[in-house]
Amino acid sequence: MATDTRLDLTVPPPNRPKIRAGGIDTRSRRRSIAMHGLLVLAAILTLYPLAWMIGSSLKPENQIFTTFSPFPTNFTVRNYVTGWTATGTSFSVYLVNSAVIALGAVVGNVLSCSFAAYAFARLDFAFKRLWFVLMLGTLMLPFQATLIPQYVLFFKLGWVNTFLPLIVPQFLAESAFFIFLMVQFIRGLPKELDEAASIDGAGPIRVYFSFILPLMRPALITTTVLTFIWTFNDFLRQLVYLSDNSRYTVPLGLNSFVDKAGGSSFGGMLAMSVVTLVPTIVVFMVFQKKLIEGVATTGVKG
Amino acid sequence: MNEGLSRRGFIGLAAMVGGTALAGCGAKGSTGGSGSTDSLTFRWWGGDERNKAYLAALAIFTKKSGIKVTSQYSGYDGYFDKLNTEFAGGNPPDLIQMDTALVSTYANKGTLTELTKFIPSPIVLDTFYEPLRAGGTVKGKRYGTASGSGNAPMLFDQTVVDKLKVDAPTNDWTWDDFSTIAGEISKAWGKGKYGAIDSSPDDSGAFQPWLRQRGKDLYLQDGTLGFDVDALTEWFTFWSGLRASGAVCPPNLLSAAGSATGAHPLIAGQVAITSGWGLAQMAPLTQHKLGIVVVPRTNGKTGQALSAGVLLCIPKSSKNPDAAAKLMNAFINDADVIKTMGVTRGNPPSAKAKDLLLPLLDPANKRDIEYADYVAKEVAKDALPAPATAPPGYGDVKTALDMAAKNVAFGKASIGDAVTQFFKDAKKALDV
After folding, report:
1. CATH code for the structural domain at B153-305+393-431
2. What are phi and psi of A158, to 5 degrees?
3. Could you tell me how many CB contacts below 8 A there are between chain A and chain B?
4. Least enclosed by CB within 10 Å: which of B78, B272, B306, B388?
5. pLDDT tens readout for residues B41-77
6. How many CA atoms lie within 13 A of B331 on its CB side?
7. Tens of pLDDT along B211-262?
8. What are the chain A neighbours of B310 within 8 Å (beta carbons)?
9. Enclosing domain of residue A40
10. In sequence order, what are the beta bridge partners of B96?
11. Which CATH architecture has domain B39-149+307-376?
12. B11 interface with A at CB cutoff 8 Å
């Protein structure tokens, strides 16, 4: 029984109620405009602090807190110039350090967590359940609980004041979050694929490298983006392990701008904050399409 | 069959090796303090100016003494988190800058070296203003040395006072003078403007001098409160009277008083007298001329408690305490180091430093320093016992006082109730 005669083509034309091109009627259109308006408003509210920051970084220092509009009347890039070297070490040093650590962490996470996830999702070994639960258990540990024991461990290894404590653990599948993410993803891949491959004579390693890993691309990309962003923005771990100014990363460099007791150079700080945003935004934008693709598709091809 | 390492696996392996190699570039870490007398690590927090000053001063020290200094510096945020981690791990720097509010916590945990064996050599303390020599003492034992001379000034808007033709506050003024002058200003100035800010919540800026003038203090050497219910009741009653007569501002203006910005009531033209801030912070914010005086006196005593600014301390597990002590002494006594440090750590803590720095400074800084020198001499004249270093829990007590004072001001609690509540909160804070 056709319940909606609007789209019923068996009904002769004169009796078919007219609908507008585009397929929506007035009420839906009005609602759509209202929703869009609301969302645009929300977007403006959310983006305002960002606009203020970028605008203020382009204002002369004495106008930052005295003028209200986020748009600069006296456009100047002085803050960027002075801010770059304001802390005594050029900001490029901080950017390079951050990049090295972030890239190392990304490579480590992608490689090791995918290995571990494959083992948990597809292989069978003694006490697998127990290890899995223990691995998830590490997610529950608050950072404060592990900070000092980890520090003592790295101190005894002589790795304090180097990048090693920030990169090497990532190569040892330290991050239970990404292991779990990938486990769930692999579980979504059909077992028939594995079985077909092993019937043809592939061992587990071959199955992993030739079949599972290529299909895991969405999860790997998610891991890459999140690891990069989190490592780039990580403050406390980098503060604890890095002591020399020449080894400082971007968050530590920014921290030096604002001192509670002394005068703060806000212009320079805002300018460098904008500079800091650029890498993370670029990474996100580059991978955004793939991220959404990964979410949209079911992950199974052919 | 397994074909051995596939291409993807090989790339992965290469990346791993490459990553570790890159990371290895940073592996030439400097572990602080090699144990010889030739080097030490020194850590501080600060803004640009202070960092530059320290670096230059350390270069001078190294040239003169041959001791290498590895400097580590950052902003204040996270400074103590990192320090705590290092104390726990057993490798703190050899010399550290310490917050006066936190030194007793660290001393009580046994993490700082007692400095008695380094005095009088290599650390000469006699250069300091007399009241500052006790800076950094916790429970009678010395754990740190002072680097600045903080005091409790009151600022007043000279331009407004002259315009209203009211008597300006002077350095000999008493609390009665304060009431009179504030009242006159309020009356002459007009509606919505008040003579003075309500200083009842200000513990170190107003309450402490008032207590010390009466022979009491905020804290005793053993870490307990140095005043009782009667004193606090008298304090709150005094300010309630002033509020009722309109001489001091109502509590809704106090929210902006916590930071030195254009919104502070003194700068915004709502009050003419304020406690809690100095010229260095307030003068740049306004076009008016500002005057600086001590907190009003009782019986001729200022009651000022000279704060030691930031302290320098040597951790117990320092690998080179002798060199650290030498560096500490350089900051106190070496003329070139003093000149390089300037006023980045506060007003000069000694007459020697003041004389060295006065010719080098701009007028606003000069006024602050001359005033600080004046206060130091007055404090010596007071001959009151040195104030105790803030005990652990001091921050919570400060908050409790602030809350109690504001509750009274807003009429949310009677003075009696607020006082009782304060002592309950303070006892909890200090018992920990």
Report:
1. 3.40.190.10
2. 80, 20
3. 151
4. B78
5. 999 988 777 888 899 999 999 999 889 999 888 888 7
6. 29
7. 999 989 888 888 888 899 999 999 999 999 999 998 889 888 888 787 777 7
8. 261
9. 13-76
10. B43, B313
11. 3-Layer(aba) Sandwich (3.40)
12. no
